[in-house]
Design brief:
Blueprint: H1 4-11, H2 26-48, E1 54-58, E2 64-73, E3 76-85, E4 109-110, E5 114-115, H3 121-127, H4 134-155, H5 162-166
Antiparallel strand pairs: 1-2, 2-3, 4-5
GO molecular function: UFM1 conjugating enzyme activity
Protein name: Ubiquitin-fold modifier-conjugating enzyme 1
Organism: Lingula anatina
Length: 167
C-alpha cells in the first residue's frame, strides 16, 4: 500500500522505541532524545539530497515546537511559520501541525491553521505507535500536504510570493 518513495523516505528516518508522553518524566526525556536523533537524521538526509525544507526547535520541555517550513514553486521560495504542541496522549495521538498564516485559505485545514491529516496520515500513525515521531509526521504529513496545497493556493492567488507582494 505504501509507494517506493515513501518506503525510501521512511527508511532514512530512525524509528522510535520509547512509548512516552510529556507526563512520563524520565521516559519522556528518553523519548525526546529519540525524537531529536530522528529529526537530525532526517534533516541530514534531506540536505544530502538537496531537499532541505524545514527548521524546527522546541521549548525546553519538548512540548511546544516551532520553526519554518518552505516550498519551492516555479523557482520561488514560499516560507511559512510552522508550530505544534505535543498532545497529552502522545505518541498514541499524533501532533496537529499548524501553519497559522494559511488559516482559512484551504478546506484541507482546521481552525487555527492546523493541516488536515485525518484521512491519510493518522491511520498510518495509529498503526505505527510508538515507532513514529515528529520526523515521520513531517515526512509523511506536512511534506505531502505542502506539495499538494501550496501550488493550488498559489494558482488561486491565495498565497503570493513575498517579492511580488511588496511590488
Amino acid at each position: 500500500m505504501v509507494d517506493e518513495v515513501t518506503k525510501k523516505t521512511l527508511g532514512q528516518i530512525p524509528l522510535l522505541k520509547t512509548k512516552a508522553g510529556p507526563r512520563d518524566g524520565d521516559l519522556w526525556a528518553q523519548r525526546l532524545k529519540e525524537e531529536y536523533q530522528a529529526l537530525i537524521a532526517y534533516v541530514q538526509k534531506n540536505k544530502e539530497a538537496d531537499n532541505d525544507w524545514f527548521r524546527l526547535e522546541s521549548n525546553k520541555e519538548g512540548t511546544r515546537w516551532f520553526g519554518k517550513c518552505w516550498y519551492i514553486h516555479n523557482l520561488l521560495k514560499y516560507e511559512f511559520d510552522v508550530e505544534f504542541d505535543i498532545p497529552v496522549m502522545y505518541p498514541t495521538t499524533a501532533p496537529e501541525i499548524a501553519i497559522p498564516e494559511l488559516d482559512g485559505k484551504t478546506a484541507k485545514m482546521y481552525r487555527g491553521g492546523k493541516i488536515c491529516l485525518t484521512d491519510h496520515f493518522k491511520p498510518l500513525w495509529a498503526r505505527n505507535v510508538p515507532k513514529f515521531g515528529i520526523a515521520q509526521a513531517f515526512a509523511l504529513g506536512l511534506g505531502p500536504w505542502l506539495a499538494v496545497e501550496i501550488p493550488d493556493l498559489i494558482e488561486k492567488g491565495l498565497v503570493v510570493h513575498k517579492d511580488k507582494a511588496t511590488s
